[in-house]
Amino acid sequence: MRSFVYTAHRARVLFGTGTVAELRAEVERLGRARAFVLVTPALAHRAEHLLGPLAAGHFDGIAMHTPVEVTERAERQLDRLRADCLVSIGGGSATGLGKALAARTGLPQIAVPTTYAGSEVTPVVGETAAGVKTTRSSPDLIPRTVIYDVELTAGLPVDLSVVSGVNAMAHAVEALYAAQANPVVDAFATQAIDRLTRALPRIVARPDDPDARADALLGAWLAGSCLGAVGMGLHHKLCHVLGGSFGLPHAQTHTVLLPHVMAYNAPAAGDAMRRVAAAIGAGPDAPTAMYDLIARLGGPTSLAELGLTEADLARAAEQTAGQNAYPNPRPVTAGGVLALLTEAWQGNRPAPVGRQPQPDIGPLTEQVVASFADSAEPRTAHLLGELVRHLHGFVADNDVTEAEWQQAIDFLTRTGQMCGPTRQEFVLLSDTLGVSSVVDLLTNSRNPDTTPSAVLGPFYVDGPPVVLPGADLARGLPGTPLWTDIRITDLDGRAVAGAVVDVWQSNQDGFYDVQLPGLDGPVLRGRLHTDTDGALRFWSILPSPYPIPTDGPVGQLLEATGRHPYRAPHLHFMITATGYRRLVTQLFVAGGAYLDSDAVFGVKNDLIVDFERHTGPTPDGRDIAGGEWCRVDFTFRIAPED
Ligand code: NAD
Asked: Exposed/middle/buried for 227, CB within 10 Å: 0-12, 13-18, 19+?
């Protein structure tokens, strides 16, 4: 066992959604009455409103890297206002200004962070004077109260979310190989990397996902706690040099440099790198896993793209290696830093640590691609060539091992063996990987004026029974009666008469008729025709969520990746009319389960519709014996044939 010292900082932390509403109470809790608010212009009004009479005034001239002239201007205003406490609302720049003012005035600070920078839980402030950024540290600089409000981060643009999240991960990575590393901080660091690795892709996919935002903010707090507890190394030093002396943006610089500094330090920090790799979970090599994650998230990968010139590299390397204030697991030399910076400037993927460089697979790939040149159809040659290029690229980028490839082949073999006349496991695989939805989007949803399409799914049966207007497709099956009243129009809103509309849906328990042996003919499916107003109406029952089959390899894949198998509740429609493009789509029940995590990625916002609940008389006078019934009204817009 290694002995260690751990310093816990005293700070009160509120974490949650809507917590900023506590701002005024927290100022009162500190016994203060005149808050000077450091805030981005967009939030100034809200902050003053929340503080009410406790708002002494606000300053919105915040600048990155805490230039002293900005701090001095803010300090003059603070004096004029006779403020007795500081409230910073914003990213690391707002928090930093608060700390710089706290250092000059001794006033207590409440920090409300809106990025993932982590400064709010550290005793450090970096200030820039005459183009040089220097840091100082004192427990007195730590904000007394931190209010984490997930809601305030929901609007942080995706690109800033990504770089700010990687900025946070950088604190955690350097903490794992810090000279003062200890088991407490290690636990914070690995949790932070784990949470941010999983949250950021979800934020990229859906920026206002509250769970992903909460995970990222919690990860940022943990990462900031690492930064506040142990000393940072070469990575933070380099970022300060490039930010302070070369004007590079803070979080973006962290993002580009992190994989390269990790690669530089990896030979001397094997244990830390193993922990990082395990937390990212993408493979054994932490620097390449970090680089690939950033690239996948759309983050910047080269210093050139941030505006650094090649001529700056040597100066930056000398400045970094010259001032040896930062401990680092591997000795820092000007030559070593220059090589690292050159790689980062060019945006290269770091070479996997401790492995021989990959052989060049380019000629082999091109040989395979060329083998399709004599295909009868040029499109066949093109598609196969692209498939091979992507496959070879996938294998090379991920250093796929023989065992992993064998596992993939076994998986596909079992998928094929599961297929038969009533079960198509490959369709399920395509659906659950989102490929079916991508093909559908590209094929059918190019015209934004039409109703969006959605996947056909495996339960359509050609030639459903023709039913009369107003008929009940449920034929007495239990469930909440549903009245569906739809219209079909062209793109100018003119009725499309005589359209053939096939509808099908699951029963109350989530099963389609074809899944239920012993049923007397089709049920909950039918073919209707629109009248001269382009309208049609029918009864059925409210659809339920249901699981896709999980007793095959696709089910195992879902289980292994922590995914549920459920589809959001929906009604299927296939609309065919002479002179128009066929529309296959689905209507989803607003407020239904799994809308944001549909197992086959079929949900589109424009297809989520209110299924209103009613009691009392029904539209066609059907007697529901006073019970509850639902109705859905929807107009489908279909496009003319190409
Ligand atoms: P930032 O505070 O400059 O914010 C970046 C941009 O995002 C700004 O334009 C800001 O107005 C905007 N923004 C912030 N929150 C937003 C939101 N929720 N929605 C929309 N826009 C939003 O950048 P940052 O990366 O958070 O902080 C960088 C600064 O913090 C640097 O000066 C860095 O040195 C410092 N920092 C210090 C520490 C420390 O411990 N001392 C730690 C991390 C960062």
From this structure: buried
Q: How far apart are CA 399 and CA 611, in angstroms?
A: 49
3-state secondary structure of 41: helix
Residue nearest to atom 35 of ligand 1 (CA): 92
DSSP states of 151-163: HHHTTS-HHHHHH
Q: What pLDDT is stored for residue 166 in this prediction? A: 98
Ligand 1 neighbourhood includes 630 CB (under 6 angstroms): no
Residue 34 CB partners (closer than 8 Å, separation 6+)? 54, 56, 81, 82, 83, 84, 85
Residue 323: the pLDDT is: 67
Specify the ligand 1 atom closest to the Cα of 65.
Answer: 32
Say if ligand 1 is within 6 A of residue 137 CB. no
CB-CB contact of 504 with 527 (8 Å): no
- Residue 251, CA atoms < 13 Å, CB-side half-sphere: 24
Place of tokens 């039409």: 450
Does 122 contact ligand 1 (Cβ within 6 A)?
yes
pLDDT at 187: 97
Determine whether the shortest distance from the Cβ of 65 to ligand 1 is under 6 A. yes
Q: Which atom of ligand 1 is nearest to the CA of 91?
A: 2
Q: Is 118 in the pocket of ligand 1 (CB under 6 A)?
A: yes
- Span from the CA of 178 to the centroid of ligand 1 (angstroms): 24
pLDDT digits (tens, 9 = 90+) for 535-588: 999 999 999 999 999 999 999 999 999 999 999 999 999 999 999 999 999 999
- Cα(62) to ligand 1 centroid in Å equals 10
Instruction: For the chain, give the number of residues.
Output: 642
State pLDDT tens for residues 25-71.
999 999 999 999 999 888 999 999 999 999 999 999 999 889 999 99
Residue 95 Cα to ligand 1 middle (Å): 8
Q: Which atom of ligand 1 is nearest to the CA of 124?
A: 41
Average pLDDT over every residue of 347-358: 81
pTM for the structure as a whole = 0.70
